[in-house]
């Protein structure tokens, strides 16, 4: 077969990328689903706040642990097999969670889900590097966040209504079937590189040849951490994403229902607005960063705006609901700045380490909610007054505020660290 010299049409490239994005959508849905099922999970499994936070965080424990192996495998094995296997295991894990008889089986299900969908984001970035022009890479990263948060929106009001209608276990079983269907579609349609469909690849020659030749997997880990930007861009996004997902993904709904007197569906809708704003902010920040040719200033601006907004939301009691919603939308939109970190990090190391650095940064992203969700729960339990409402622990405003200070502390550190990064001007390290 004669190899064509033209690149693949964009509609084909986006379709290939989009199938990987479907798994990321499912992963994000699973990531925040416990946030609208807190009462059901606490009653079914007899959980305290710390135990619920730990159950939710089982997803993040395995997700974070898988990030470096995922980046290495994406470089040396290819995204097609990785994404297919990830989707199949996610379907199994979702079934285990849905059928769990106790918290240990539920935790195992969450562990399987988190470890398996961990391949989605890095797999998508790898596909983007091969199937899309370099100038669209940050945009693709932002669109990935959009897809993911679309999944989180499904885990808001729609999931709450389904749980009310048919129960959380039935909803999770349906989710498992959908995930299995996505696995089959990825295996059938996705290819690692355009050359497998007789098109020219967008991957840099050095990167592509390195993948074909293989190499020592562990060398990549040590090599990416020789660069200062790797360390900084590993630590920074945890404060951004940890704050968003600890609030919208777990503690926001009970906080809003307890202290603003909102119904669960209304509280879930507000958390969904936060996530929708985040979804919009990702592509906007990605496009602006590419268009302006800078990474650092926009990343810094986003962190400063988030810190200001979250400080008002979490520290000022009894805000007018309209102002509360407005501040959450601002915080969510500017949290889209974290998407810049993937292109920023990719440009900070040699191109053949692109999968590895993506995995390292994504591990840093998920460190935030992994640590903060159970930590906030631990503080809530520590300051619990002993009050129960419908068999579920009720926590006072001071308990929530004390727990939320952990989120603000990490976000403040992230804001400080971004000023120490080295600007790449959107140019790949050579």
Please provide a written account of the structure.
The protein is an all-alpha fold. It has one domain: Up-down Bundle (Growth Hormone, Chain: A). 76% of the residues lie in helices and 1% in strands. It is built from 18 helices and two strands. A two-stranded antiparallel sheet has the order 1-2. The chain is globular and about 70 Å long. The two termini are 33 Å apart. About 2% of the residues have low confidence.
Write the CATH homologous superfamily.
Answer: MFS general substrate transporter like domains
Q: Which bin fits the share of residues in helices? A: over 70%
Described by its quaternary structure, the protein is: single chain
Structural category is: mainly alpha
The main β sheet shows up as: 2 strands, antiparallel
CATH class: Mainly Alpha
Core attributes:
430 residues; Growth Hormone, Chain: A; globular; mainly alpha; 1% strand
Task: Give the helix/strand layout.
Elements: H1 10-32, H2 38-44, H3 49-76, H4 79-99, H5 103-117, H6 119-131, H7 137-154, H8 157-166, H9 168-189, H10 205-213, H11 217-224, H12 228-259, H13 264-292, H14 296-315, H15 321-335, H16 340-346, H17 354-382, E1 388-389, E2 392-393, H18 397-417
Antiparallel strand pairs: 1-2
Please outline what is shown here:
This protein has 430 residues and is mainly alpha-helical. It contains 18 helices and two strands. The chain has one domain (10-420): Up-down Bundle (Growth Hormone, Chain: A).
